[in-house]
Design a protein that fits this description.
Chain lengths: 259, 158
């Protein structure tokens, strides 16, 4: 009986949280027109979640591209098709690794910071204070952060992929001696703008919405104690990563159209 | 806390770099520059067997790509594959007795359509049909034929 009770409570709690999160998202989006004319608020958040995440994105993009070049070369050279290295690096980055790794890094670097910041605002009753002054904290605090993250993510993913391709070029052409001509020409012949690049951008946009949504909701919904904020931050990273990986499979299946 | 101007400059740099990266992906990595031919016209060809031809496969003449396959359909009355292709509008003088054949690039490569020009003075217009076609080579049929010939040679030797 106790087991059933616990199970029921967990399920009901989960569904309730999901419902609150959905209403929260609706509140953000429906109130977003009030941000028109207050763009500096969003700008500040793009700086916070975008520019400050740039370093980790660029460095990991470069190294992921270089590793892909190294690994891909060793496999492709067995089939005598080392010239396709550019295609392999570009496709893996643009289709998969760019959006996914960026989203995972984003959740760890920017998402956790968002949650901690909003959670602390709640714990120190800044959000309640705003409400007392008839300022809606969802519009003033949450929405700029949400849209900042949504705008920053596709740009970060594009930067990740671009610098990854350059990393692959450094290793493949610079170190391993693949010819630069076929490296780029096979890449251009094989990477389709609509099928590969646009889909990569769509993926990263979806990840941007989901990651920032989870981050701001966990912060807003945190238990207002230092322990509660710590747990909320932890949950942000875990839930974002799981959501990104699961959504990645669904989006890939949808865009490739063949499961 | 940094000053507002510095922050704005950084955001501007970030957005510009992101868009630049996107443009690099589109033009340098992808094929945006070559894929869309604005001023193109359509030709149709019917094949007994289109083999492994795919939409977006190149259409070449003298080895140079002049178009792409845009649609592959099926003619249920004559049981033939109908291939529609978009030809670059710059090449308007393709003779009417040009023949189309489905070829393979390399031994294991993708299939493409090769156009062999004829000598006619009349040129194809939009939505014309190429009359002379040669189907894709199906490897299994080729091997079967080869084995059959070998076997019949053996019969004769006896």
């Amino acid at each position: 009986m106790n087991v059933l009770h616990t199970l029921g409570r967990i399920v009901l709690g989960g569904v309730e949280r999901l419902g609150r999160a959905a209403l929260f998202l609706y509140e953000i989006v429906s109130g977003s027109w009030e941000l028109v004319g207050r763009f500096p608020l969003v700008l500040q958040q793009i700086y916070g979640v975008g520019v400050l995440t740039l370093l980790i994105i660029l460095v990991s993009g470069l190294f992921v591209g270089m590793v892909l070049g190294l690994q891909g070369y060793n496999t492709l050279v067995k089939f005598g098709s080392a010239n396709s290295l550019g295609l392999l690096v570009a496709l893996s980055l643009v289709r998969e690794l760019g959006p996914v790794v960026t989203a995972l890094l984003f959740a760890g670097r920017a998402g956790s910071a968002l949650t901690a910041e909003i959670g602390l605002m709640k714990a120190t009753e800044q959000l309640a204070g705003m409400e007392m002054m008839a300022v809606n904290p969802v519009i003033r605090v949450i929405a700029p952060r949400f849209f900042g993250g949504v705008i920053a993510m596709p740009l970060l993913a594009a930067l990740f992929s671009a610098i990854g391709v350059l990393g692959g070029h450094i290793v493949g052409v610079g170190l391993l001696g693949v010819d630069a001509g076929p490296f780029w020409s096979q890449m251009q012949a094989g990477v389709d703008f609509h099928d590969d690049i646009v889909n990569g951008v769509i993926k990263s946009a979806v990840f941007g919405v989901v990651c920032t949504w989870i981050a701001v909701f966990e912060g807003y919904d945190a238990v207002p104690t230092s322990e509660g904020v710590a747990r909320a931050t932890n949950r942000t990273v875990v839930y974002s990563s799981l959501a990104v990986l699961a959504l990645d499979f669904i989006l890939t299946a949808l865009t490739l159209g063949e499961v | 806390m940094i000053s507002r101007k510095t922050m704005e400059v950084w955001v501007g740099l970030f957005v510009a770099a992101g868009l630049l990266a996107l443009a690099m992906l589109a033009f340098k990595v992808g094929n945006l520059t070559t894929s869309d031919v604005v001023d193109s016209y359509t030709l149709t060809a019917k094949f007994n067997n289109v083999g492994g031809l795919k939409v977006k496969a190149p259409v070449t003449m003298a080895g140079v790509r002049i178009g792409r396959v845009s649609k592959i359909g099926f003619d249920s009355e004559r049981f033939m594959g109908v291939v529609e292709m978009q030809i670059d509008g710059r090449y308007k003088n393709i003779p009417k007795d040009t023949s189309a054949s489905i070829l393979t690039s390399g031994l294991l490569g993708d299939q493409y359509i090769g156009l062999e020009p004829g000598g006619s003075e009349e040129y194809f217009k939009n939505k014309d049909t190429i009359q002379m076609t040669q189907s894709a080579v199906v490897l299994e049929k080729l091997i079967g034929q080869f084995l059959f010939n070998k076997a019949s040679e053996g019969e004769k030797a006896k």
